[in-house]
Amino acid sequence: MSGAVRLTTAFAVPWLESDVVGPEGWLSELRAFLLSNAESLRLRWSPEAAPITFDGLVFTRPDLLSLPDAPIRALDKLFRQAVLRAVESLSGRPSGMDPRSLTFESWASIGKSGAALGVHNHPMASLSGVLCVDPGEEAPGWPESGILRFYPPAFAAPPFPGEMRSPWSARSFDVAHRAGHLVMFPSFLHHEALPYKGERERIVVAFNCRFAQST
Ligand SMILES: [Fe+2]
Questions:
Q1: Domain, as residue range, for 96
Q2: Which candidate in 55, 66, 119, 179 could, as Cys together with 192 as Cys, close a disulfide (CB 3.0–4.6 Å)?
Q3: 112 C-alpha to ligand 1 centroid (Å)
């Protein structure tokens, strides 16, 4: 007779969240800055050439954090602090890292009604994040409007006979945006933005972070 089967977790995916606290009025200044500069900062990225499908979205150039404007300087500082805290949470000890050593790409995405972003991940980065600047507005009858949906690494695995319970389930999970909410996740994690049905612009700033190789 065989023995009992022991069930444990072999691998897990970290998930990090923060409610970003910036200088007084900073988030609304950032919103105003992004809206008023959306056209000049716009990334000329045709849907045909893009590696992912998107609709109704304006992306800014990915070097947003290099801009000298005050709301962006504050954003740069907050992102670096958040990533260092994430690193410390994950390692369980002070990082000793210089926040200036972190390499970022960061871009805003501004979506009007109908905006959606197909399933993708962020290759060539370690940690990615999405900060909600303005969630836009609720759309009656569309509870999933603008939802950011994440998929487990094994989401494309063949079906299992009977659904595995949490935390082994291959189900996706959803993030409903709210202003000032930052989520951070390993860059390999696949995700998508479901169609946004509100009218007011929905604005997020995303980033990819890479860590310098220690010598
Ligand atoms: Fe993304």
A1: 16-43+51-153+169-210
A2: 119
A3: 17
